[in-house]
Design brief:
There is one protein chain. With 166 residues, the chain is an all-alpha fold. It is built from seven helices and no strands. It has one domain. Helix 4 runs antiparallel to helix 5.
Amino acid sequence: MNEIPLYWLFIAFFALILMSAFFSSSETGLMSLNRYRLKHLAEKNHGGAMRAEALLKRPDKLITLILLGNNFVSVLITQRATYIGSRLYGEAGIALAAGLLTLILLLFAEVTPKTLAATNPEKIAFPAAYIYQPMSKVMLPLVAIINWLAKLVIATSGDISFASGW
């Protein structure tokens, strides 16, 4: 990758941050929707509301889809940041990248997008539903496998009381 110009690596890095922000904000937006208003808008044939309502009928699949996308993007972001840091500052750049990346991800890919989505869920959730609906069809086999594995882990864990562990 030494032949790839740094500006292309930075462009890819920022594009990935935007993708992570999309996944984070849309998760919060979809989960924050007022279900009564959603049903009302869907009955009036609002496209985004109809898609969001369909996605929310299976929240386990929706959450898995969103987390799958966000985790994949986060791994790519980390790889890019580490590589950029290494190219710019050698070994010290790797540590610097880790510190800066934590701040960048928290601010631009988590806290800010989720806060915006929590205060304006429809503006985030309805457009996102247009992306998630076809994405859920393409990713269905992988989502089903991950959900099956998660249920298997839960089933083999025995009777766990989450409240007592906190």
